[in-house]
Amino acid sequence: MFPVVMPTYARADVAFEKGEGAYLWAEDGRRFLDFGSGVAVTALGHCHPRLVAALTAQAGRVWHTSNMYRIPGQERVAAKLVEHSFADSVFFCNSGAEAMECCLKIARKYHDESGRPERYRVICANGAFHGRTLATIAAGGQEKHLKGFAPVMDGFDHVPYGNLNALRDAIGAETAAILVEPVQGEGGIVRGDPDYLRRLRATADEFGLLLIFDEVQTGIGRTGRLFAYQHLDVAPDVMAVAKGLGGGFPVGACLATEAAARCLTPGSHGSTFGGNPLAMAAAEAVLDTVTEPGFLDRVNHVAASLRTGLETLQARHPAVIEEVRGQGLMLGLKCGAVENIALMRRLFDAGLLTVAAGDNVVRLLPPLIIGETETTQALDILAGVLADLDGARS
Ligand SMILES: *Cc1c(COP(=O)(O)O)cnc(C)c1O
Question: I need a labelling partner for 392 at 20 to 30 A (CA). Which of 135, 156, 230, 326 fits?
Answer without folding.
Answer: 326
